[in-house]
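## retry 2 of 3
previous attempt timed out at serialization; input unchanged, resubmitting
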Amino acid sequence: MSGPDLSRSVDEEIIRYLSRLFGRQSEVHHTSLFPTNKSECLVVALDTEYYPDRVDSVSIELRAYTNGDFHISYIEVYSGDRRRCRWDRHDQPHNSRDHYHPLPAASTAAAVDHEYATDLTRVVETTVLPWIDDRVGIRWDSVA
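## retry succeeded, writing output
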């Protein structure tokens, strides 16, 4: 096993850009750029008014690196139960470089290979946000 990738540093420019984009969305309650407990991360708290009452909180955590690696987590607390999924681009032994860890736990064992756009902004636009829109619908359907 090799050591840490020294070329992998935080891509502050893209994270700041995405923070500005998310900050303009009505579905976003607030954003936290590089919070002290997640110093490489953009944390986006979504407005739970768009979800059924039993959804306590929803957030996105986004990490981006100058070598093209990224991790985007969706975290939903529903009736006290924490659910998580994650879109990843990084080298590791369990899947292809681009892969997805599904709900409910984003486990490595459940990860599936995926193919993402090269640009992280496009990944957010074409993969993550449509998935979240579908998830909101699923949450409402489960209440009916």
